[in-house]
Specification:
It is a single chain. Strands 7-5-6-4-1-2-3-8 form an eight-stranded mixed β-sheet, sandwiched between helices. α11 runs antiparallel to α12. α4 links the parallel β2 and β3. It has 337 residues and is α/β, with parallel strands linked by helices. The relative contact order is 0.14. The protein has 13 helices and eight strands. Bound molecules: uridine-5'-diphosphate and magnesium ion (MG). Uridine-5'-diphosphate (UDP) binds next to β1 and α5.
C-alpha cells in the first residue's frame, strides 16, 4: 500500500463525481416550465454526472411557483428559490449563481429558446478544460434586418468605448466552471449588465453556435424601451468614455465660440458695429444650452448609478427556498467539515 492510500480511506481516493447546477430564471412561465423540465431532464439524464435543476422564481404572478413546487416534490434534484418580488432577469440569475453548488453551472432560459440539448456539448467542452462555454446565436434565422444591424452597430460601439471585449450575439446561455462563478458572484454591483460581467471575468472560453428557437409559450418580457435601457446600462456600466465626451464637446464648443468672438472683434474693428446678428445669437445660445444639458444628462446618468451603488442594499431577498438534494448534501458536508 502506498503512503497516500494508507492515510486516505478508499472512497475518498475514488474520484468525486462531477456535479452540475442548471440555473433557470423564471418570470411568469407557467405555460412552459413543465415542458422545459421534461426536455431538460431528459438531456441531463444522459450525462454521466450529478446535477441540480435550480429554478429561480423572479416574483411570478401566475401559477409558475405552484407548478415548480409540484415538480420539486417529485424530483429531488430540483431546487427552487422564490425571490420576494420581481427583480429582473439579471438579479434572478445572480441569485441562482449564489445558491448553486455544482462544479460547473449552466444558465438557461425557461422558455425553451435555448435548446437544452446543447448542454451535452457544453459539458464535453468543459471536460476538455474550458472554463466558460458560451452559446452564440446565429441571428439570420430569427430577426429582421434592422434589429440585426442596430445590434451589430451597438456592440461595435460598446466594444470601442469599453476595454472589455463583449462578444456579439451571446447571451446568458452558457456554462461556467466554479472558479468563474465565484468571480462573477464577487461582483456585487446593482447595475448588472451580465454579459459585461461575464466578459470582464475573463477565463479560458470557447463559443459554440446555435440557432435560437421560438418561444414555446407566453410572451417575451423585453419591450423596445427595456432593450434601450439595457443598451444604456451596457455602456454606462463598462465605459466612462461618454463622460469624457462631455469634456471634449465642452472644449470644442468653447474653442469654436472663442474663434467666433475673435472674428467678431476683428470685424467690428475693421467695419464698425452693425446691429444685426440676432439669428446668430439665438442659435449660439440655444446650441450651447443644448450641449450643456446633454453633458449634464450624461453626468446625471453616472451620478444616478453612483447613488444607487452607494446605498449598498442587498441585491435581492429570498422569500422561500427549497433545496435540491445536491445543495442539501453540500450543506451537510460543509457542516461536517
Ligand atoms: N425573466 C426573469 N425576470 C424578468 C424577465 C424575464 O426571470 O423580469 C426570465 C424569463 O422567465 C426567461 C428569461 O428570463 O426564462 C428570458 O426572458 P425572455 O424570454 O422574456 O427574454 P428574451 O428571450 O425575449 O430575451
Ligand atoms: Mg425568451
Amino acid at each position: 500500500m502506498n503512503p497516500i492510500q494508507e492515510h486516505c480511506p478508499a472512497d475518498t481516493l475514488r474520484k468525486k463525481r462531477e456535479s452540475l447546477s442548471i440555473i433557470v430564471p423564471v418570470f411568469n412561465e407557467a405555460l412552459v416550465v413543465q415542458q422545459f423540465y421534461s426536455r431538460t431532464s431528459a438531456v441531463l439524464a444522459t450525462l454521466d454526472c450529478d446535477y441540480e435543476l435550480l429554478f429561480v422564481d423572479d416574483g411570478s404572478t401566475d401559477h409558475s411557483v405552484a407548478t415548480l413546487l409540484q415538480i420539486a416534490a417529485q424530483d429531488q434534484r430540483v431546487g427552487l428559490i422564490c425571490l420576494s418580488r420581481n427583480f429582473g432577469k439579471e438579479v434572478a440569475t445572480s441569485a441562482g449563481l449564489d445558491a448553486s453548488v455544482g462544479d460547473a453551472v449552466i444558465v438557461i432560459d425557461a422558455d425553451l429558446q435555448h435548446p437544452p440539448e446543447l448542454i451535452t456539448e457544453f459539458v464535453a467542452r468543459w471536460r476538455e478544460g474550458y472554463e466558460v462555454v458560451v452559446a452564440t446565436r446565429s441571428r439570420e434565422d430569427s430577426e429582421g434586418w434592422f434589429k440585426r444591424q442596430s445590434s451589430r452597430l451597438y456592440y461595435r460601439l460598446l466594444n470601442r468605448l469599453s476595454n472589455v471585449d463583449i462578444p456579439v450575439d451571446t447571451g446568458d446561455f452558457r456554462l461556467m466552471s466554479r472558479a468563474v462563478v465565484k468571480a462573477v458572484c464577487s461582483m456585487r454591483e446593482h447595475h448588472r449588465y451580465m454579459k459585461g460581467l461575464f466578459a470582464w471575468a475573463g477565463f479560458k472560453s470557447i463559443a459554440i453556435p446555435y440557432s435560437r428557437a421560438h418561444r414555446q409559450g407566453g410572451d417575451s418580457k423585453w419591450g423596445n424601451l427595456k432593450l434601450f435601457a439595457l443598451a444604456i446600462e451596457g455602456i454606462t456600466s463598462f465605459s466612462i468614455v461618454p463622460l469624457r465626451f462631455a469634456t471634449i464637446m465642452g472644449f470644442l464648443v468653447a474653442m469654436g465660440t472663442f474663434t467666433y468672438a475673435v472674428y467678431f472683434v476683428i470685424k467690428t474693428l475693421l467695419f464698425g458695429e452693425v446691429v444685426r446678428g440676432f439669428p446668430t445669437l439665438i442659435t449660439l445660445i440655444l446650441f450651447i444650452s443644448g450641449v450643456q444639458l446633454l453633458c449634464l444628462g450624461v453626468i446625471g446618468e453616472y451620478l444616478g448609478r453612483v447613488y444607487n451603488e452607494a446605498k449598498r442594499r442587498p441585491l435581492y431577498f429570498v422569500a422561500r427556498q427549497h433545496d435540491s438534494s445536491l445543495a442539501h448534501d453540500a450543506r451537510e458536508n460543509k457542516q461536517d467539515a
